[in-house]
Design goal:
Helix content is about 35%, strand content about 20%. By secondary structure, the protein is α+β, with helices and mostly antiparallel strands. A three-stranded antiparallel beta sheet has the order 1-2-3, with no helix packed on it. Strand 2 and strand 3 form a beta hairpin. The model has no long low-confidence stretch (mean pLDDT about 95).
């Protein structure tokens, strides 16, 4: 299933972080605006976070979702993002 990023333009940081934690990621460390989340299977994702209400550019979302968290469209539905 292809991921429709036009539907994710309004995804806020709070909701993304909640989904990461629901999927088993935990916050390994933070420094300033950078938050590093790690999964016990070795996946890592970094979020540049200024406030919990911020949204992300489509390219940033694509990097976080597909390349770092390695989520599919089915995963996004399971986590309640789509």
């Amino acid at each position: 299933m292809a991921i429709g990023y036009s539907r994710l333009r309004s995804l806020r940081a709070r909701r993304l972080i909640r989904a990461l934690k629901k999927d088993g990621f935990y916050e390994e460390r933070s420094k300033g605006a950078l938050r590093l989340f790690k999964h016990r299977d070795g996946r890592r994702t970094t979020i540049h976070l200024h406030n919990m209400g911020q949204t992300f550019a489509v390219g940033t979302l694509k990097a976080i979702i597909e390349e770092q968290a390695k989520w599919t469209g089915a995963d996004l539905e399971r986590l309640g993002i789509l």
